[in-house]
Amino acid sequence: MSGGPTILHADLDAFYASVEQLLDPALRGRPIAVGGSTGGGVVLAASYEAKAYGVQGGMPGWRAARLCPDLTFVRGTFGEYPRIADEVMVILGDVTPAIQRISIDEAFLDVSGSTHLFGSPATIARNLRRRVRLEVGLPISVGAARTKHLAKVASQVAKPDGLVVVEPEDELAFLDPLPVSLMWGVGPVAERRLAELGIHTIGDLARTPTRALERLLGHAVGERLSALALNDDPRRVASGGRARSVGAQSALGRRRPTPELVRQVLSHLAERIASRLRARGRAGRTVTVRVRFAGMRSVTRSCTLGAPIATTLTLTEVAEQLAWQAMAGQGETEISLLAISVSNLAPQQVIQLELPLEPEDPHRPGSPTGVSRLALDASMDAARARFGRDAVGYLPALVRRGGAPDAFRELAERDL
DNA sequence: TCTGGGGTCCTAGGACCC
DNA sequence: TCTGGGGTCCTAGGACCC
């Protein structure tokens, strides 16, 4: 660990909303929400002008509209977000190759090897902020500190459009008065449990015995929060790490789970997941299906197969069985969401001998199985690559459209 | 008046093995 | 008489992050 504040955390402010204000000057200085509407849907991002009214991401549109009557809902130009975020990342990458992007709009940088070329970390941070503002047109906040956790907390404190540098001798004093909710890993549940013990600030947390936190929040969370509050964070800036799961979900409103609906939705999800797996040269052994009922209660069922799969039809069939298992005996008549996730990932063999669930499906003689399924998928992948996403597909998958805008789905599933 | 979509990690219990 | 101990894998649920 180096001595100075050489870790930067750079975080674009209210990214989607800022892009919309950049693209449409009429929206600048005004409270806007990307996604959602007065009638429904959820707000994906709120401008700072809207946040001042309490509007937040994840909030139902009708509630946001009630909090802020002047709120302007914007549909969202999702196709632009990756391109603009990538431009910012290129600027950040100009000062160091040691960059770890952790989402579309934020990254850690280790600038310890860059100071002889570009000046102190504070100077580097100021220049990066200036360049992003001038060349891209967006506000970006930066935190600079000795560790990742401190840098991340500092960038949160710096928002909006600010820079906070934490010198090593100021670290504990910096953390002490901050609310626990600023810590990575403290969500609504942990915050509430901590508050019940009178723990509100990171300083309170640091003064609480580790064992007490472990009893309250579980071993892993308690131990980690205790370490972070005491400013012990050994994590390094490291790019990489392959995904451990690939999934997709679809909200349905309230629907009766007919066999047709379940098959349609699951085959659509399976097609999206399987094609992404194949594009990455991966396959997975564990399939998990989640069913959410009308009252938001959800149930999952999973199974681990003998061999990894990456074919659309096999995944659809496994998912269908799991979905009916999940719904059996639950006493529910309506569902509001179906989700599939594939984990236990492994590299996909060049020639994958994927066996169907049964040698032949007796109910659908002639249905493609095994190697022929993979060949079918491969030809569809190729057609999609040439003619676009909707050019070809399994029939049930083609039927199901709607829900979130497709551009938003594509944004969410993009590899960083 | 009713909540999107993509992920990661942890926990607890049970099966199973040596 | 009353049943070890450790490790691994699997499943279901849940908290959390962007």
Your description of this structure?
By secondary structure, the protein is an alpha+beta fold. The chain has 17 helices and twelve strands. A five-stranded mixed sheet has the order 5-6-1-7-8. It has a four-stranded antiparallel sheet with strand order 9-12-10-11. A hairpin with a 2-residue loop joins strand 5 (99-103) and strand 6. It is globular, with a radius of gyration of 24 Å.
Low-confidence stretches: 355-367, 398-402
The CATH level-2 architecture of the largest domain is identified as: 2-Layer Sandwich
Within the CATH hierarchy, at the fold level, what is the topology of the largest domain? Dna Ligase, domain 1
Characterize the biggest β-sheet. 5 strands, mixed
How far is the N terminus from the C terminus? 27 Å
Q: What is the CA-based Rg, rounded?
A: 24 Å
Helix fraction by DSSP (H/I, runs of at least 4): 40-55%
What's the overall geometry? globular
How many domains comprise the coordinates?
3
Record keyword descriptors for this entry.
416 residues, alpha+beta, Alpha-Beta Plaits, DNA polymerase, domain 1, Dna Ligase, domain 1, 5-stranded mixed beta sheet, 41% helix, DNA-binding
Q: Strands, helices and their partners?
A:
Elements lengths: L6 E6 L2 H9 L8 E3 L10 E2 L1 H4 L9 H7 L4 E3 L5 H14 L5 E5 L2 E5 L4 H4 L2 H16 L3 E6 L2 H11 L4 E3 L5 H5 L12 H9 L5 H5 L3 H8 L1 H11 L15 E11 L3 H22 L1 E12 L4 E12 L2 H16 L7 E13 L22 H18 L7 H5 L6 H8 L3
Parallel strand pairs: 2-4, 7-8
Antiparallel strand pairs: 1-6, 1-7, 2-3, 5-6, 9-12, 10-11, 10-12
This protein binds a DNA duplex (18 and 18 nucleotides) through helix 3, helix 9, helix 12, strand 9 and strand 11.
